[in-house]
């Protein structure tokens, strides 16, 4: 969509869209953002990491061009081994997918195709449950607690003989909240005797406590637990589509049969390099933390309630319908997150670059 069309659709024709000079071409890491600045929109809606990919990863991708005439399957083994070593599992426990969404959908298909029930929090990231619902599963949606955490006790109570899988997103999207590790481990141990537990860990890299465990620890104990991870967030690789699942090898092979979108050869090269690039990983976390502090202090200034975030986004209560809030930010050329029913007077904002978040904070001061 060109700029004029966008302005027309957004109802902003005639309104000049301010673009911060500091955002234009200031460094190589800002180059990917220029496209969005050119389009007049600051995208704080999809929990991307606009600092990525790192220069080292860009080089690895460029070097991969010469291999584009080859099928990628021969490159999977090395990446699977790297992932397996990182998590202390075997390669046979790893399923590579084109983005973790594909792993979520393949699991939704594998466990939902013959009907049955799936239990999930509400609101939660929907890729697995929507797909499962589409192929015939019934979804039990369990409201979050008043503190906006998963209600694990209520989820456990819903389990019946028809339950095929319980979906947990930790940290959760859209709230950014994190379950106490012991509660989740205990839940997984109890529940996985009766059904499969899926732990979506797309944002686990952002958790500040270095000792907070991945539920991969339960996969290693042989439990009925599946974990998903992604290169889209802290590694800044959302556009290339690569992620993975970790599960017991019999479960991994079962899901592998349903995977349709396998990673391409450039995605594999990018992921391998990204896993080695500790400097960029740390840089991304530091920037997300800096951005979150800016957002928190602006929300506090305006007495707006928010959930302390363990992710690269912040969920805050506006007290107004989200459509109104989206429009108000869009008038300032900022796109915030979509509606998350039933929390329709809350808004999710992603951490963009520091400059973009600065503009979000200024917009927030003027809207509220
Ligand atoms: C909780 C959660 N899981 C999975 C994904 C999917 O990410 P990707 O398919 O890019 O790996 C997202 C994307 O925003 C997410 O928020």
Structural commentary:
The two termini are 30 Å apart. It is built from 14 helices and 12 strands. It is α/β, with parallel strands linked by helices. The strands form 3 sheets. A 7-stranded mixed sheet has the order 2-8-7-6-5-3-4, sandwiched between helices. Helix 6 (127-134) links the parallel strand 3 (117-122) and strand 4 (138-143). Helix 5 (100-112) runs parallel beside helix 6 (127-134) and helix 12 packs parallel to helix 14 (354-367). Helices cover 40% and strands 15% of the residues. The chain has helices at 3-9, 31-38, 55-63, 73-87, 100-112, 127-134, 152-157, 181-191, 216-220, 249-256, 265-276, 278-301, 322-330, 354-367; strands at 42-43, 94-97, 117-122, 138-143, 163-169, 196-200, 225-230, 243-247, 306-307, 313-317, 334-335, 346-350. Residues 1-34 have low confidence and may be disordered. The chain has 2 domains: 3-54 and 279-367, Aspartate Aminotransferase, domain 1, CATH 3.90.1150.10; 71-276, Type I PLP-dependent aspartate aminotransferase-like (Major domain) (Aspartate Aminotransferase, domain 2, 3-Layer(aba) Sandwich), CATH 3.40.640.10. Bound molecules: pyridoxal-5'-phosphate (PLP). Residues 47, 99-101, 125, 169, 173, 200, 202, 230, 232, 238, 243 line the site of pyridoxal-5'-phosphate.
